[in-house]
Structure formats: C-alpha cells, structure tokens
C-alpha cells in the first residue's frame, strides 16, 4: 500500500488554470493514449482523496450530481474522501465522504477504510498533497508533464521540497507526455 499523488502538470508547474479548469489538459492531442495508461494506475487504487476545489471542478465538469452513474463509470465504487471546510453536495448513493480537519487527524480513518493491498490516490490539489507530505504520509509523486505552458494557475506542489527529500525512480514517455515518478525520503 502506498499513498500516491498522481497528477498532470504544465511544463511550468501548474495543475489547473486560474479558473481551476483542466480543459488545457484534455485539449492536448494524444491525451487518449495517456488515459488508457492511467487505467493501469487506477486499477491498483482502492481509495481516492481530494480537496474541495478538485472535487467541485469534477462535479461541475463531469456532471456527477445530475448523473451519479458517471461517478461509478469514472471511479468505480472506491471510497472517496474530500477535504473541505464547507458542506458539499455528493453524488447520490456514492461512497463520498466530506471531511473537515487536518490530514494527520483524518489519515487513520482513511487508512482503516482503505481496501487491503490497494493504494491511496491523492487526486489533487497540490496543497492537499503537500499536507500529506508534511505529515510524512506521502510515499510517491507521479507527475505527468504536459506540453503546455500557462501564464498562471494552481501549482503542482505549493511547498519548498528540496532534492534531499525526493528520489527520482522512473522517467518515461507516454505519447506527448513525460511521466516522472518520485519517491519521498
């Protein structure tokens, strides 16, 4: 079991544009081949964790509230933990739990409810992944670099993390994308 932050980033380090949109990512030619490869990663994931901005963008863009079956089509029946200080709507009948609190306080419940022998995927955003890093719980970062530059947006990791805390374990090309896998030290 590993806790993994797997995200796509622009070449200048943004995971979403200034409006929290990921449309720039889906507009990249060849993103379908990367999506197929992503299915291999998702097959090993038992639990999803995300921040409220990521979650709300997904709800709106993929229309999960009016059609909850779409949630299952994308994420299956994986338990999902959404960190937010607000009450948020959830897709009817889906295992989505909105929690308010520090990662360190909620993490034991996430671990206890994670299906055996499966990974935990931090879907986003960068600040939430940084909070997992701060607690020492983040095991791996998979950063897929996309051939796009944005003039502003949400950073992949709004933390200063020096090279003595990360080790590159794999770099590979997936179509137009470059996937970099880092282990935390």
TrEMBL record:
<dbReference type="GO" id="GO:0008703">
    <property type="term" value="F:5-amino-6-(5-phosphoribosylamino)uracil reductase activity"/>
</dbReference>
<dbReference type="InterPro" id="IPR002734">
    <property type="entry name" value="RibDG_C"/>
</dbReference>
<protein>
    <submittedName>
        <fullName>Dihydrofolate reductase</fullName>
    </submittedName>
</protein>
<feature type="domain" description="Bacterial bifunctional deaminase-reductase C-terminal">
    <location>
        <begin position="3"/>
        <end position="175"/>
    </location>
</feature>
<dbReference type="Pfam" id="PF01872">
    <property type="entry name" value="RibD_C"/>
</dbReference>
<dbReference type="InterPro" id="IPR024072">
    <property type="entry name" value="DHFR-like_dom_sf"/>
</dbReference>
<dbReference type="GO" id="GO:0009231">
    <property type="term" value="P:riboflavin biosynthetic process"/>
</dbReference>
<dbReference type="InterPro" id="IPR050765">
    <property type="entry name" value="Riboflavin_Biosynth_HTPR"/>
</dbReference>
């Amino acid at each position: 079991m590993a806790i993994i932050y797997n995200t796509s980033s622009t070449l200048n380090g943004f995971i979403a544009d200034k409006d929290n949109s990921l449309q720039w990512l889906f507009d990249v030619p060849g993103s379908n081949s990367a999506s197929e490869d992503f299915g291999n990663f998702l097959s090993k994931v038992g639990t999803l964790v995300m921040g409220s901005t990521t979650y709300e963008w997904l709800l709106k863009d993929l229309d999960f509230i009016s059609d909850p079956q779409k949630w299952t089509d994308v994420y299956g029946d994986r338990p999902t933990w959404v960190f937010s200080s607000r009450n948020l709507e959830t897709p009817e009948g889906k295992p989505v739990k909105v929690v308010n609190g520090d990662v360190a306080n909620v993490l034991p419940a996430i671990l206890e409810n994670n299906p055996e022998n499966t990974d935990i995927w931090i879907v986003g955003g960068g600040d939430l992944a940084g909070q997992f890093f701060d607690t020492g719980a983040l095991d791996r970062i998979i950063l897929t670099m996309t051939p796009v530059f944005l003039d502003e947006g949400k950073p992949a990791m709004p933390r200063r993390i020096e090279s003595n805390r990360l080790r590159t374990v794999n770099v590979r090309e997936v179509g137009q994308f470059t996937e970099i896998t880092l282990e935390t030290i």
